[in-house]
Structure formats: structure tokens, C-alpha cells
Amino acid sequence: MARYASAVCRLCRRSGEKLMLKGSRCFSPKCAFERRAKPPGQQPIRRRRLSDRGAQLREKQKARYSYGIMERQFRRIFGEAERQIGITGENLLMLLERRLDNVVYRLGFADSRAQARQIVQHGHIIINGRKNDIPSSLVKEGDVIGWKKNSTKSGYYQQMAATIESKVIPNWLSLDGENMVGRVLSMPTPEDVEAKFQGQSIVEYYSR
Fold first, then answer.
1. What is the percent of the chain where pLDDT is above 70?
2. Domains and CATH numbers, the chain
3. Packing angle, helices 88-97 and 71-83, rounded to 10
4. Could you give phi then psi for residue 146, rounded to 5 degrees?
5. Under 8 Å CB-to-CB from 34, ≥6 apart: which residues?
6. How far apart are CA 38 and CA 21, in angstroms?
7. Is residue 133 packed enough to be buried (19+ CB in 10 Å), middle (13-18) or exposed (0-12)?
8. Cα(116)–Cα(104) distance, integer angstroms
9. What is the DSSP letter of 68?
10. What's the Cα-to-Cα distance from 208 to each of 78, 83, 98, 138, rounded to whole Å?
11. How many CB atoms lie within 10 A of CB 3?
12. 49-88 burial by CB neighbour count: b if 16+ within 10 A, else e?
């Protein structure tokens, strides 16, 4: 499976804002964006005005970077959003938010989506009592997300369980912090998505 293997802090600098790709490090003085906010690479002598097409591309790239998705997979998700009834930009946001790796992150089981993806791929997460190691799986209303029994003995699980109460959970999810079990109460709405990008700009980018 293809994945981005370079320094992810460069993606924040390229996007011009923090995308929270490194978890708690993004809140610390070690954050690369705080220390050096300029885009990576040689800086132009004169700053060029960003075109409309460039602004649309930037929004699309920010969405990809935020959820850790490669271009081909992102284009496939966009196609699915187009086929659904409703506003394509909002459908895209909700499909991205329903991904299992994102739900694991939003429940506070991981400090970043990249960490959540690794947890899922290593088989630590169960949905409705069954192991699911596919990060791109879409959760449904009523799904129960928990940990595999053997995984609860790990040091990482104990560390997360000790700090889970401090995590902020979105309204469309609920969390039993004592048992480290989450439930999908409803489908996410555009207001529930902490998006750092504009869905409409992505639609305009792919519409050309």
C-alpha cells in the first residue's frame, strides 16, 4: 500500500497552516511550523499571487494531508461523494470523517490519524466484536468500536486509558472511558467536522 514516507511537518509548511499531523508535538515548541512557517524549498525573490486553480489545489491537498490519503484513493472517495444524494462537498467531508482510522483518532485512542491508522492495521481494533484491520472502512450508526482483548494488556493501551478523560469527543460519537469503548451515535454532519479545508473548492478543482 502506497503511503507518504517523508517528513509530514513539511506538509503543514507547504499548506501554510497547522494540520495537526504529529499529535501532541504540534502543541509543543518542537513544532516545525512554529519554528519555520515558510514553505519548504528555495524561497522566491518575489511572492507570486496564488491563482484560483492554485487555491483549489491547495484545499484538495490539505484534505489529503489531513486524512493521510494518497491521490488515487482520494479521487475514488470523491467519486463516491458525487454519486450520493446531496451536496458533493459535504458528502466528501462525511465520508472522510466516517473512516475507521479517523474515528479511532476522534475517540481519543490515538494522538494523530497516522497513529490511529497504525493501530487499526496492527489488528488492535474491533467493530461490533469483530477485528477490523482496514483503516478505510466506513463506520455506520450504532457501530461499537473497542479494543481486542489481548491489546488491552499493552503498555500503549494503559497509557491511552490513563489520559482518555482529557480528550474531547465529537457529538456524533460517545465514549465509555472506563472500558475504552466508543459508539457511533449518528452520522457526522458538516458542522461536526473540524475541517481545515473547504469542500466546495475541492469540488471545483475536480470539476474542471
1. 76
2. 9-96+199-207 (1.10.1050.10), 108-189 (3.10.290.10)
3. 120
4. -145, -165
5. none
6. 17
7. middle
8. 6
9. T
10. 14, 17, 27, 28
11. 9
12. eeeeeeebebbbbbbbbbbbbeeeebeebbeebeeeeeeb
CA distance linking residue 104 with residue 75, whole number of Å:
23
Per-residue three-class SS string for 88-120: HHHHHHHHHHCEHHHHHHHCCCCCCHHHHHHHH
**Amino acid of residue 119:** I
152-158 long-range contacts (CB < 8 A, ≥24 apart) are 152/180, 154/124, 157/124
Residue in the structure block whose three cell numbers are 522566491:
44
Q: Give 125-168 pLDDT, tens digit per residue.
A: 999 999 999 999 999 999 999 999 999 999 999 988 888 888 88
54: enclosing H helix or E strand: helix 52-67
Q: Which helix (H) or strand (E) holds 62?
A: helix 52-67
26-46 confidence digits (pLDDT tens): 555 665 555 566 666 666 566
Interhelix angle for 199-207 vs 52-67, to 10°? 120
**Does residue 105 contact residue 112 with C-beta atoms inside 8 Å?**
yes
Amino acid identity, residue 74? F
